């Protein structure tokens, strides 16, 4: 029983330790899903893959993966059993040279395959970093049904401007009509950033090296988005962040941008030769309106997801941002309409007299054809024909070069983020969106990849009659056991699968696991997962075309009372929950855990004191506190012995989540049983492996893991080791003092937490700048 005592003390210590830095917050989904049904597709030969690029080929049912010195081809249904690989290391001389330039031969001086795109019906284009000598080559993958996979040796050529030199620096690329579009930094020192077009039959194009065009950019994505049915108006959109320097300060800030170029740009004839002549850029704003007109800006673009529409011209653009503020950490998702983006590009150009002036809207005459417009039927006038950008007057190109920036920024839908997260222990890096058809309409389900190997599945509900939204975390999937950043995610709606990549490998996760929500209609309903519905007997995948009679689903309200009245809404399930036994020492503190499955649920505690049959609600006071994670007894009394029930209430549906029999050990009993009272019996076996406490509740350590970030883990372990390993009496004293001190800070921690949102609001973020 001393083990139990140690366990709760440590639990508490750890929780409070965490509370000191940032408030602990368990954002558990309706169901805890640490044991996800995931199958890791592939971890590469010799256990290392160095995953960098992924191309999901639904036509061939194949997944192509680029890694460190290697390319893989996996058949989706049979995964690793049928993998083919191409070994593609850098040339020996290049490894040597890379090493001599001071790069790490184990990590940097390899060929990381970062570009992997379908090129034509039979080939993929792959480019790698080649130990700081980028290389490109075609990979033969054959026609559908064939399973060939080989590098075309004759096609290997230098890949400068097509692939970054570094293994991990941000960049973006895509293939459009046999040409490769890239946004990257092309030189060894990182001073030559640009937007490049290469391959194909036309001469290569790039941006001029000019800080007005691109200032230390970090590219995130590039996509072809047609304007209309005239292919001559097709444009490539680049999404990135860059530095801006305000007129009145030396400080620079980071802003997010969308830039575009015409696919049929051929550069100028005398001016801007082999340079983009149609390049324009605008600011992407994602901010939360604050008091006094000061908005909180999320300026660091992390990822872009295009939710394609049928016509292909107006995809909805989902963008994941984080803050660059040092005051608080947060992420936001904003959604942009193409119509709004086009309007900004059709609007005024930004202009300033000199770098010391403020930006304003350019009000002078804009030459014709308007810079940024593609040469097409639309630009042609009876007497002035523009077959290519080479026909554009020099005046147009001079103007384009001097005015790359649009004056107005692009605002998101409803002028506010769809989702804001400021309380997460991890940063969000990746975003994938699925629009799901449910009984009450369409819902957008967001999959957010973190930097700790996990994926959050969130549904955002648009409240009817207002722009307000409600978000529900449906699942938190720990895809990789190790907390590595998720670097890429691809969704297959056809297969209802999400492919998740990190430097450790590629995993696949099902989009929904309805069966885990439970076996009652109410549970299925409360989960509010738009993928799932109660079919009369079980919680199953919702199919819009399926039979309707017994189907129950209510995403908007999740109200089981309405949905499940006739479906045997449970509930006195007091007896069905497994009983835990917990021992506590009289006059000391103890903690009964209970975390509701849903963050929306309220918790009530009941106690049954034998021999009474009756259950009374637990009265909380100075001595007994109800916290987010359970019930804290600051000082146990003998009469606290009893069976404690933790019940949650959500939309009229109650459920018993935990049942704990608390035994209070009296001082007399303790004097006889606790070995450290004698001061000689060593607790050594525990000290070497503090985690393996026999009989300890399995969940408490996991909860600590949840509560604290990994940097704190060492401190917790040390803390626990101190607790468990101090067997000599004079050590015990300081330990108790420590515990008391920790307990005393409980209130402070709680107050601190309550005060936080307010404090956050008052922190002054940078002011919005127009462009
Ligand atoms: C995991 O999912 C696969 C199919 O995707 C299924 O065959 C398997 O039974 C599932 N395993 C568990 C433990 O749910
Ligand atoms: C695809 O491109 C490669 C490389 O240019 C070329 O060798 C091959 O013939 C092309 N295949 C088709 C079907 O056009
Ligand atoms: C629900 O109904 C089934 C059979 O219809 C029954 O066995 C079960 O006990 C019921 N559950 C509750 C909690 O009433
Ligand atoms: C097991 C344990 O730590 N018991 C302690 C409970 O608190 C009393 C008084 O604070 C101590 O004397 C016990 O040693």
From TrEMBL:
Residues 25-511 form the Sema domain. Residues 592-663 form the Ig-like domain. The keyword Signal applies. The keyword Heme does not apply. PANTHER family: SEMAPHORIN (PTHR11036), SEMAPHORIN-3G (PTHR11036:SF20). Belongs to the semaphorin family. This is Semaphorin-3G. It comes from Patagioenas fasciata monilis. The gene is SEMA3G.
